[in-house]
Amino acid sequence: MTIRVFLLGVFFCTNAFAQSFPSRAITIVVPIPPGGAPDIAARVIAQKLSENVGQAVVVENRVGANGNIANELVARSAPDGYTLGLLADSQITINPHLYKMPIDTLKDLAPVTPVAVNQFVLTVNPSLPVKTFQEFIAYAKQANPPLAYASGGNGSQHHLTMEMLKQRAGIHMLHVPYKGGAPAAAATVAGETAAVWSGSSNAPQIKSGRLRPLAVSGAHRSAQYPDLPTIAEFYPGFENSIWLGLFGPAGIPDATLSKLRAELKRVLESPDVKKKLNAAGGLDPYVASPDEFEALIKRDYAKFAKLVKDIGLKVD
């Protein structure tokens, strides 16, 4: 009888805690500097989530080790729902195959919800004498010394997508890693590198002509850039879309996790959030069930494990 009363007390205390969650500020950790797609998405979500729950939601940029610093910070935080990470797919499904990881991304991080999905745009510095994707490939094949391309870091999606293209097209290029997609795009705008896979945050540079777009990396043409071909139109089967998701440390109580997911679903289904994400460069809100999100993570984890092995990719 005493044990039963104790268990009932635990249940009611846990339930009461979940109902009062959040009772203080929530922190969203972002693995890149301000300006990149995860940072933009985090700030859009933070603002709306704060309005909905009546608590401050703070975005904290923790840059370094291609997202592994942010990964570890989130994984080692208290499992109470107050520290989350807005992480890109590369940090969860690519890094483990390239780095000696401080954590196990499949075991030490709890998937909360996917946030947004997008595709890359292959862009070049306008001084490069190419106007189309075909011209770029032909020029890259003949370039001596090889063209340099920027990425958001070793093992980032920018890096892996260009390595995929190099393999399919039979070209050689020099990889120059930066600490995030925004600095990588800035380097290409400045002429330090010839090309970069641009994400949603680089839409202003593309629209202003500071970066010349040539093709997109997704399975279908982009609604934002309908005149650009997909890489798959030249190399069938080539496809690499990108997603962003919110993760917490493993061990968050189910009731708290359910409350978080419900509030974030409400945020992502908000018309003004969709509008702001779209305006940020074509990010689309990505609403999925917990089971669907976990299936996506496992699928991409296996896909990139094979890809890294097939390409023989190693961090520089």
Strand and helix layout:
Blueprint: H1 2-20, E1 26-30, H2 37-53, E2 57-61, H3 68-76, E3 83-88, H4 89-93, E4 109-119, E5 121-124, H5 133-142, E6 148-151, H6 157-169, E7 174-177, H7 181-189, E8 195-198, H8 203-207, E9 212-216, E10 241-249, H9 254-268, H10 271-279, E11 284-285, H11 290-311
Parallel strand pairs: 1-2, 1-3, 6-7, 6-8
Antiparallel strand pairs: 3-10, 4-10, 4-11, 5-8, 5-9
Helix pairs in contact: 2-9
Give a quick summary of the entry.
The chain is an alpha/beta fold and 316 residues long. The protein has helices spanning 2-20, 37-53, 68-76, 89-93, 133-142, 157-169, 181-189, 203-207, 254-268, 271-279, 290-311; strands at residues 26-30, 57-61, 83-88, 109-119, 121-124, 148-151, 174-177, 195-198, 212-216, 241-249, 284-285. The chain has two domains: 23-118 and 241-311, Bordetella uptake gene, domain 1 (D-Maltodextrin-Binding Protein, domain 2); 121-233, Periplasmic binding protein-like II (D-Maltodextrin-Binding Protein, domain 2).
Describe this structure in words.
This protein has helices at residues 2-20, 37-53, 68-76, 89-93, 133-142, 157-169, 181-189, 203-207, 254-268, 271-279, 290-311, and strands at 26-30, 57-61, 83-88, 109-119, 121-124, 148-151, 174-177, 195-198, 212-216, 241-249, 284-285. Helix 2 (37-53) crosses helix 9 (254-268). Helix 6 links the parallel strand 6 (148-151) and strand 7 (174-177). 42% of the residues lie in helices and 19% in strands. With 316 residues, it is α/β, with parallel strands linked by helices. It is built from 11 helices and 11 strands. It folds into 2 domains: 23-118 and 241-311, D-Maltodextrin-Binding Protein, domain 2 (3-Layer(aba) Sandwich); 121-233, D-Maltodextrin-Binding Protein, domain 2. The strands form 2 sheets. It has a 6-stranded mixed beta sheet, sandwiched between helices.
